[in-house]
Automatic annotation (TrEMBL):
InterPro entries: Brix, Rpf2. This is Ribosome production factor 2 homolog. Its main location: nucleus. One of its GO terms (molecular function) is rRNA binding. Belongs to the RPF2 family. Residues 28-238 form the Brix domain. It comes from Dipteronia sinensis.
Length: 320
């Protein structure tokens, strides 16, 4: 196990905070590793899964002897690699006489095993066995559609668990806005029986439909395989509750004089102050104001004292 050390500087502290569990998760990385014995089919499956997850996956090609995910104490190495690479999803491949071409897909919480699904690979077809226009090949980093066909994904416990794990494995980073041109592929999972799923990878071809929305066609580009469920292990209830915690929305600040009604919707109260018309300033262009000014001017002139020269001028005008 890795020795627990306290950070000695701010940079190391920030790095540890990035790896710590978060209420709002960032994109999950996938760790792909193998056991002591694998087959050519299993190696091809892991290689092509790594190519599909390119950019958000880490592949280890060395053999690991001590990894036994379903046994007590056998998950120590897995947790070590999860902590070392900061990966929260892993794919472990091994083959044996009892379980040939075996894949274990699991998730971790706080770098401890959360849940596990073990599947067997049958009828595998690599990408090289499909012929299609290479221009339809999906771009690195594009977002996929994930389709689950069949009632078993809602009724059968094993298939419901496999669906949850596959969604986490294939969806990539969660985003808010999406451009239609960036969705160029689809993963199709079909429930054949209660323990068998047909998995295939298709490209999306956009064609004219006579409307603004184009018509889509699926072109199988591989890989494809049958996944037979062998074993699975669900998380315990306490761990599930801890891992499913979400950030609570901040309570909205109460707005004064605003209410809600079932029929009318949002209702508000508006308070209008009393209008003091007597104190309102009238515009300067008003005729009434001009008249009042003229009257006030003449009144002021009448009340002003008359000088000696003005009196002589007034007297002279009256004699003439």
């Amino acid at each position: 196990m890795l020795k627990v050390r306290t950070p000695k500087n701010a940079r190391a502290k920030r790095e540890l905070e990035k790896r710590a569990p978060k209420l709002v998760e960032t994109g999950k990385k996938t760790l792909i590793l193998q056991g002591t014995k694998t087959s050519n089919t299993l190696n091809a499956v892991m290689t092509e899964l790594y190519l599909l997850k390119k950019g958000s996956a880490i592949r280890y090609t060395r053999k690991n002897e001590n990894i036994r995910p379903f046994e007590s104490g056998g998950e120590t190495s897995l947790e070590f690699f999860s902590l070392k690479t900061d990966c929260s999803i892993f794919i472990y491949g091994s083959t044996s006489k009892k379980r040939p071409d075996n894949l274990v897909i699991g998730r971790t919480y706080d770098h401890h095993i959360y849940d596990l699904v073990e599947v067997g690979v049958e009828n595998f077809k690599p990408i090289s066995s499909f012929t299609y226009d290479k221009k339809l090949g999906p771009q690195v980093g594009s977002k996929p559609f994930i389709c689950f066909i069949g009632e078993g994904f809602e009724n059968v416990e094993e298939l419901k668990h496999l669906k949850e794990v596959l969604v986490d494995l294939l969806r990539g980073e969660v985003i808010e806005n999406l451009n239609l041109s960036g969705v160029d592929r689809a993963y199709v999972c079909t429930a054949i029986s209660s323990d068998k799923v047909f998995f295939t990878h298709c490209a999306l071809r956009l064609k004219k439909s006579g409307t603004v929305v184009p018509r889509m066609e699926l072109v199988e580009i591989g890989p494809s395989m049958d996944l037979v469920i062998r074993r699975h292990r669900l998380p315990n209830e306490g761990l599930r509750k801890e891992a499913m915690k979400t950030s609570k929305d901040h309570p909205k600040k109460k707005v004064k004089n605003v209410g809600q009604d079932v029929i009318q919707g949002k209702i508000g109260k508006i308070y209008v102050p009393d209008q003091k018309l007597g104190e309102m300033a009238l515009p300067n262009k008003s005729k009434g104001v001009k008249r009042e000014r003229r009257e006030a001017k003449t009144k002021n002139n009448a009340n002003e004292p008359v000088s000696k020269k003005q009196k002589e001028k007034i007297l002279h005008n009256s004699q003439n």
